[in-house]
């Protein structure tokens, strides 16, 4: 099968018109597909309103018990169910899932190495059999950032990591493309200049741009996950603006394409 994994960022989800525009594009996107979402901005806002202050380290959330409750309600509840309802209205038979549903993503609580991230899960296993089954039955999984450890504990996992893990697991048997859609035109040299897109990025360029702090915060997990996906057999990885998803799918120039480092070619 040819499968597209499409991840939508919190900055798009947070604006109802932008989300609607994206979902109508997504609904028309050809072939088998999976939608992955987080909603970090909304979780921070809801948390703050409840007195649970957000704390991020390199784009990843420190997740204590109260934070876990908030992110579960926001990602696996509010956002996931709204997206599913909107897709149903577009005649797409979407099914909302967190990692515990159908044991689709099992993770393990991140061990403390310098930083204690709390209830953050590192992905261990993806139930590709169930995903194959759903896709073959024309169901469209909408997967959020909550995973589980199969011992009853929910865990918070970066949504970019979810997208990458789904892509790499499915790439063992299928041809998989991975699209990270967010609110900027791609990886930018100057974050404030939408025209400063870096069209192609490899690990050498990435290392240099991180040293210079051109790439920081949420872009770090996105790129770490993008390189990992390519290394593990994903066909094509793209980062760009949600409304340019179609251009990317048609191979037209837009956004940033992630390239395997030259050493991998030999
Ligand atoms: N070089 C860069 N180009 C574009 N965005 C960058 C760059 N470095 C850091 N960022 C930040 O990364 C953010 C995207 O990460 P994140 O907020 O996790 O994305 P998402 O919208 O997918 O949730 C951007 O909004 C931007 O603030
Ligand atoms: C562990 C961790 O960082 N989890 C993320 C999950 C949500 C997410 O990734 O949302 P975006 O895609 O909107 O950034 C978080 O709670 O922010």
From TrEMBL:
Its EC number is 2.7.2.8. Pathway: Amino-acid biosynthesis; L-arginine biosynthesis; N(2)-acetyl-L-ornithine from L-glutamate: step 2/4. It holds the Pfam family AA_kinase. Keywords: Amino-acid biosynthesis, Arginine biosynthesis, ATP-binding, Cytoplasm, Kinase, Nucleotide-binding, Transferase. Residues 3-239 form the Aspartate/glutamate/uridylate kinase domain. It catalyses: N-acetyl-L-glutamate + ATP = N-acetyl-L-glutamyl 5-phosphate + ADP. One of its GO terms (molecular function) is ATP binding. This is Acetylglutamate kinase. It comes from Algoriphagus antarcticus.
């Amino acid at each position: 099968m040819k499968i597209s994994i499409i991840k939508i960022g919190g900055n798009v989800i947070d604006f109802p018109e932008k989300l609607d525009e994206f979902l109508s594009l997504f609904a028309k996107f050809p072939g088998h597909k999976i939608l992955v979402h987080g909603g970090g901005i909304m979780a921070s806002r809801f948390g703050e309103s409840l007195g649970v202050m957000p704390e991020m380290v390199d784009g990843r959330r420190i997740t204590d018990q109260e934070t876990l409750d908030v992110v579960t309600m926001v990602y696996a509840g509010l956002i996931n169910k709204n997206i599913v309802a909107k897709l149903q209205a577009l005649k797409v038979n979407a099914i909302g899932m967190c990692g515990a549903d159908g044991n689709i993503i099992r993770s393990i609580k991140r061990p403390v190495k310098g930083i204690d991230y709390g209830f953050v899960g590192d992905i261990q296993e993806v139930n590709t059999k169930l995903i194959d089954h759903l896709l073959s039955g024309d169901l469209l999984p909408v997967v959020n950032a909550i995973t589980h450890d199969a011992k009853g504990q929910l865990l918070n996992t970066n949504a970019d990591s979810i997208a990458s893990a789904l892509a790499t697991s499915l790439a063992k048997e299928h041809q998989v493309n991975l699209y990270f859609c967010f609110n900027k035109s791609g990886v930018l040299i100057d974050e404030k200049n939408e025209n400063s897109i870096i069209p192609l990025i490899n690990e050498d360029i990435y290392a240099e741009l991180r040293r210079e702090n051109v790439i920081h915060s949420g872009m770090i997990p996105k790129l770490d996950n993008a390189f990992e996906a390519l290394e593990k057999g994903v066909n094509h990885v793209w980062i760009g603006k949600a409304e340019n998803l179609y251009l990317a799918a048609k191979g037209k120039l837009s956004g940033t394409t992630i390239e395997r480092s030259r050493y991998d070619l030999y």
